[in-house]
Amino acid sequence: MLSLKRRIKTAQNVSKTTRAMQMIAASKLKRAQTAATLSKTYVNKLSEITKNVVTKTGENNSHAYMKKNNDIDRKLVIVLSPDKGLCGGLVFNLAREIIKEDTKNPYYVVIGKKAENVILKLDREILGIFPFGTTLPTFDVVYPIIKLVNDTFLEGKVSEVQLLFTDFTSVFAQSPTVKTILPLQFDTQENIKNCDDMLFEPSVEKLLPNLLEHYLEMILYQGFLDNYASEQASRMIAMKNATDNANDIINELKLEYNKSRQERITNEILDIGSGFFGIKNE
Amino acid sequence: MNLHLEIITPEKIVYKDDVSEVTVKTDNGQISILPGHVNLLTKVLPCEMIVKKDNQEHFLAITGGFLEINNNNLNLLADYAIRAEDIEIAKIQEAQKKAENMMKDKASEKEFRVAEAELQKALLQLHVASKRGKRKTS
């Protein structure tokens, strides 16, 4: 009886906590979602412009960001993950992607505690570890990472750079995604005609590095925003399920508790009844 | 004939409208763009931007970015942009003070540069905000 009562209390506490976490995640999600979608329009426009410039410059003018280092066969993977757990299958899916990924022993740059733990356990080479944070990421987070990427990629230590993050498709669907961010690739054939007569100021050679750098930063930042939105969405759903489960358990336990209480009462009445009849018969 | 102007920042679409003239500062100096301008891509510096629509001038503060002109469609991708009407002077002044204090404290070089950039941004916004009262009708 007493233990049942205690278990009901525990389940109630759990449900209270998870409900609070669900609500926090929901409010954070709303902001994250708007940020992710709005910055997507920016990135799309930027990629359009960059594409135009790249098409215009042609191959003989390409920037170091676009050349593949063929003499080396090693990748740099940037992994984005949350700092905090309790967000459903997100971390697990990410970890599975990391384990599946490895063939040629890539370098890693890790953002977030959860991925850090996974990669440390796998004993892979890590070049840098950064925290992900629990609030909406600000733009400054990309600078140290870009610096690290430049140091390795432009120095020819790696052949390509990949970004592993959880893409935010909707509140109910987030999937770990691998995106090759360096060397930058563009579909140059597509809209080759609409920029024939475009003028560049001061000059293509001066604009291109600026544009490409900014583009790289934006792609990375977009990854951060997507990852953050995914984390919150995933956590919200996970916590909703946890709350529902806790409520189910509470109902079950309550039923059991009431049953056993009723049983005791019946037994007591029977006891009194049989006692009474015993006295009467004597 | 009109120019279709879109100012996009990572945070939001700040401006989306048909206008008749746009003035910004670029690497090569200040330029004004009228309808029929040749297609152009240029880097925009932090400046006060003037947008003319129906003979009314609107002011915006932008902190640099890229401007693309393509068949009278103007796309301005800016790191940060704000309309003069939306600038909250009290908030900016606070930011200005904070940045100045940080620069006085002589923190690390990185912090100093961040503060400097913040200060420039604040001053620019104050400058633009001071114009909004006297919107000319020419």
Shape of chain A: elongated
CATH topology annotation of the largest domain in chain B: ATP Synthase, domain 1
Radius of gyration of chain B: 16 Å
Spatially, the strands of the biggest sheet of chain A line up as 3-2-1-4-5
Description of the structure:
The complex is a heterodimer of chains A (282) and B (138). Chain A is of the alpha/beta class. Chain A has helices spanning 2-57, 90-101, 113-122, 142-153, 204-281; strands at 75-80, 107-111, 126-130, 160-168, 174-182, 199-201. Chain A has one domain (38-238): Pyruvate Kinase, Chain: A, domain 1 (3-Layer(aba) Sandwich). Helix content of chain A is 60%, strand content 13%. Chain A has a five-stranded mixed β-sheet with strand order 3-2-1-4-5, with helices on both faces. In chain A, helix 2 (90-101) links the parallel strand 1 and strand 2 (107-111). In chain A, helix 1 packs antiparallel against helix 5 (204-281) and helix 2 packs parallel to helix 3. Chain B is of the alpha+beta class and 138 residues long. In chain B, strands 1, 2, 3, 4, 5, 6, 7 and 8 form an eight-stranded mixed β-sheet that branches. Chain B is built from two helices and eight strands; from the N terminus they run E-E-E-E-E-E-E-E-H-H. Chain B starts with a strand and ends in a 9-residue tail after the last helix. The chains are: A alpha/beta (282), B alpha+beta (138). Chain A binds chain B through residues 35, 38-39, 41-42, 45-46, 49, 52-53, 139, 194-195, 197-202, 206-207, 210-211, 214, 218, 221, and chain B through 8-13, 26-28, 38-43, 66, 68, 70, 75, 77. Strand 6 of chain A pairs parallel with strand 5 of chain B.
